[in-house]
Automatic annotation (TrEMBL):
Name of the coding gene: ABHD6
Species this chain originates from: Ilyodon furcidens
Residues of the AB hydrolase-1 domain: 84-325
Name this protein carries in UniProt: Alpha beta hydrolase
Keywords per UniProt: Hydrolase, Membrane, Transmembrane, Transmembrane helix
Family classification: Belongs to the AB hydrolase superfamily.
Entry keyword Metal-binding: no
SUPFAM superfamilies cross-referenced by the UniProt entry: alpha/beta-Hydrolases
Amino acid sequence: MKIFWIFRAAMAAELDVVNLFFVAGATLAIPILAFLASFLLWPSVLIKVYYWYWRRTLGLQVHYADCGGYRFCYSYRGKPGMRPSILMLHGFSAHKDMWLTVVKYLPKHLHIVCVDMPGHEGTTRTTTEDYSIQGQVRRIHQFVGSIHLNRKVFHLVGTSMGGNVAGVYAACYPSEICSVTLICPDGIKHPCETKFDNHLQDLEQSNFTLNIPLIPTTPDEMEDMFRLCSHVRFKIPQQILQGLVDVREPHNAFYEEVFMKIIGEKSRYALQEHLHLITSPLQVIWGKQDQVVDVSGATVIAEVVPGCRVDLLDNCGHSVVMEKPCRTAKLILEFIILQQNARSGTKKSS
């Protein structure tokens, strides 16, 4: 009888172990199944969760700034300190989270602000006047004032369309800027044509009835856009490509409005027309294999702006922030420190 009870106790213990493994397996299976379901059925949800996770991991907080009925959405990390604050302006049809890859490699003590450009993501959409380069400059100046970023001079960074805006901003509001970094900026009359220039000519000849390469509507078109913008070939699963299309699709009409405005007569070469007014120390970073805005634009800028620092990146296309984030962060930080040391030396000598 005693042996029977010992045997029964042993069996119960084994069942408890089996139940424990079953519960543990089920606990692990639920998030795995949820991930697979999101990946296969709702990839756009997965993309949003990805950005949320990386903002949280990098210590970025999302805030809103209201300016007389106009609302800006921005993320930030750190507080103003010894180093200048950094304001980052993204490119056409992107959003503030495109800078996450670069922010990852910047010191955590730096005060960094990444804003959604006018009409993009969480920032208010109004009339097309706000989407011209000059209109965006006015709105960004409004944003800078609303969060009191201009209490001290700050470093301004912009890429592509954001680079055009950043350059014009530096020309229009020189007293607010200590230095500027332009990454593959558009708005320049570059002497060499690119693949995108050829697309643009075809679009103009068709009276814009053809699809705009920077506004994809299918996973294949999304893949083509990545090939156009990036020299590095990223292997992106079809489900993620579909998710990116799904995220962007509701905004495509808006993107078309912005695109038509920034290639219009008043905006297409706005940076070129304002280069002679830039007095702040200027850094230009460009991918040598850029197929959207030719790297020859760097020479054009350097010839007009005295002392301009030019950093050209090998094996890199237009999407510098995505292709070379660590190198980009290092170059920006080096430039900021160099300019700050130069200002300190000037003050001591005087």
